[in-house]
Amino acid sequence: MHSHKHSADHYGVADDKLANFASSIEIPACPRVIVEMTRAQNQSSPDIRVIANLAEKDPAMTAALLKTVNSPFFGLRARMLSVQQAVMFLGIRNVINIVTAIALKNASADVHGEGVRCFWDRASITAAFAADLANRIIGLARDEVYIHVLFRDAAIPLMIAHRVKSGQLGKNTLSDKKLYMAQVEVEQSSIDHAIISGHFTKKWLLPENTQQSVRLHLNIEMFLGGTPRTEVPKWVSLQIAMGYLAEHIMREYFGIPHSELWENTQIDAFLRYVDIDRAEFQKISMEMLDEKKGSTMANELMSKS
User: Fold this and answer.
1) CB 221 within 8 A of CB 7
2) What is the CATH number for 254?
3) Residue 42, helix vs strand vs coil
C-alpha cells in the first residue's frame, strides 16, 4: 500500500537529488504506433480505418489487442474478430489506451524475472477493478481510470532495474517475487516514482488529465480534509480515488494485508469523497470479487503480462 509519507508540499519543489535520480532513469520511447494513432485521432475527422490499420501493422499487437478486447473485462456480447470491429465497438480513445497498456507492459519485457511479472499481474488486475468500480459508482470513463492505474506506478520496474544495475540491489531481486514486491512497496512510499511516472505519461502522449492524476496520486490531503497545495480538478481527483479503492479490492482478491492507517482512517476518507458508505462499498466489492473469481479475467490478464 502506498504509505504517503510525503505531503503535497513536496510537489513542485526542486530537489537536486531527485532530479539527478530521475534523469538517470531511462523512460522507454513512446512506441511509433501510439504516436501515429494519437496523430490520427487528433485529425478533425478521425478515420476508424486508419486507426485500425496502424494497430494491425504489428501482428503481435493485433493478437494482444483482440485477446484483451475479447476478455471478460470488457464483457462484449459478440466476439471481436478484427481491430476495425474493436474500434467501432469501443471507440478510438479506448483502443489507443488498450494499445498503450500492452506497449507499457512490453516496455518492461527486457527486465526478466518473476518479480516484474508479479508487478504487472497486480497492476493489471487493479486497473481492471478500478475501471469497473468507476463505472459502477460514478459513471467515469472506464478507459481513463484503467490507464491511470497502469501508469501511476509505471516507473517502478524501471527504478528497480536501475537499482539492480547500479548495485544498490542484488540481482536476485528480479527473480525473487517476495523481494521484488517488497521493493515495490518501498518505491511506492517515495515521491520519486510519482514524478518519474508523470514524465512517462507525458512522453507517451497520454491525455492531460492522466498526466496530472499520475503525477499527483500521492497528494491525498484533498481526501483527508487537509488543504492541498495544488488545486486538483475533480475529474483528476476521482481517477486517483478510484485507483486507491481498487487497490483495496485487489488486496482482498490476493489476500494481501492492508496498512493499519488505511483500515483506520484512509478508506473512510476516500469513500466519503466518492459519496458511498462502507456497507455499500463492501457490497460492491463482494459483487466484483465474486464476478472476477467466477470468470477467467485474472488468467486472461496474467497471461498477457
Assistant:
1) yes
2) 1.10.3210
3) coil
Q: Determine if residue 167 is left, alpha or beta; phi over 0 gives left, psi from -120 to 50 gives alpha, anything else beta.
A: left
HEC secondary structure over 272-296: HHHCCCHHHHHHHHHHHHHHHHCCC
**Whether residue 1 has pLDDT greater than 70:** no
What does the angle CA 114 – CA 115 – CA 119 come to, to the nearest 5 degrees? 115
| One domain, residues 193 and 263 | yes
Q: What is the largest CA-CA distance in the chain?
A: 53
Count of C-beta atoms within a 10 Å radius of residue 68: 21
* 179, 172 contact by CB (below 8 A): yes
Residue 293 lies in a domain: yes
Residue-range definition of the domain harbouring residue 267: 8-28+112-304
**Whether residues 136 and 244 fall in one domain:** yes
Residue 2 lies in a domain: no
Calpha distance 7→16 (Å, rounded): 18
Domain contains 13: yes
C-alpha cell at 217: 496520486
**Residues of the chain by 3-state class (helix, strand, coil), percent to 5:** 70, 0, 30
pLDDT at 180: 93
pLDDT in tens, 279-292: 999 999 999 888 87
Look at residues 106, 135, 157 and tell me which one is the last residue of a structural domain: 106
* pTM: predicted TM-score of the whole model, two decimal places: 0.82
pLDDT per position as a tens digit, 87-108: 888 888 888 888 898 888 887 6
3: Cβ–Cβ under 8 A, 6 or more apart, which residues? 185, 188, 189, 259, 261
